[in-house]
Amino acid sequence: MAKTILAVDDSGSLRQMVAFSLKAAGYDVVQAVDGQDGLNKAKEKTVDLVLTDQNMPIMDGLTLIKNLRELGSYQKVPILMLTTESSDEMKAKGKAAGANGWLVKPFDPKRLIEVVQKVIGS
Amino acid sequence: MEIKTLPIAELRKLLAAVSDHGKQHLIEVEADLLQTTFLLSEAIEKLSASFTAVHEAVCEQQQVLDALAAKYAIDKPVLEKLELFKSKIGDEVNVAVTSLQFQDLTSQLIARTIKRVNGLKDLLHEVESHSNEMDPNHEHEEIVKFLEEMSNSLQVGSHALSGGLRRSVGQKDMATGEIDLF
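YS: structure for the whole thing
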């Protein structure tokens, strides 16, 4: 059974590129348009990995991670940030919130798949 | 000759003109940026749809080629050439997916600029409002106080505007970003 990845980003084109890359590698992808939508979808169905943007309306990525980590079912689910932010300060905040990795946009699909496979397997 | 009062009417006229002209230009800037956003959104939508369709067609074509190669004896050099094409297509798809993320970066920059433009419009409006409070009958000290208040208000407003903006996008090109696993 294919593993499911929750892709959270307010940019439709970015979500489309993430979904395209992950689906081509055999993963199922659930998409969410902001942190709140991501949290709602994560509650509806437990996923194997969360890939989230930072700067989004309604709820940002760091807040989403903190909320997910408070849910029992998401305490050990890997969460990766995929964002334009690249400062060490923001990475430290992400790590403190519970992120397992930080990817700076734009992403290379091949490298994204390598990272995802390393974190959750094929 | 010592001048003890400021030419308030002229000063008010100048500040009103700065505010009006400034706001008018900023309205035009905002309209152009919104139009750019709209055009970029439509362009990326069509590009993404075409890209996906081309990719699907190429994948199907590859399946047909694989089936033909399994059914018929095809020369080794031809098969090697087909493999080479397959690999090249894969590499180009990767580059395209990376490049097609431009709209996410540019839309963030444009949104930040529009927010700054709107903030500047508010600041210019404030200049006009403050200048309206000045009256030619006011004493010199009162006028000085008005101008100081206006200056402080602009400084505070400008600071708040910068603080309220999202962080700027640092990417200067479409090169792939770094990856850190914690």
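YS: worth flagging: The interface with chain B takes residues 9, 11-14, 16-17, 20-21, 55, 84-87, 91, 95, 99-111, 115, 118-119 of chain A (CB under 8 Å).
IM: good catch. Also Strands of chain A lie at 4-8, 28-32, 49-52, 79-83, 101-104.
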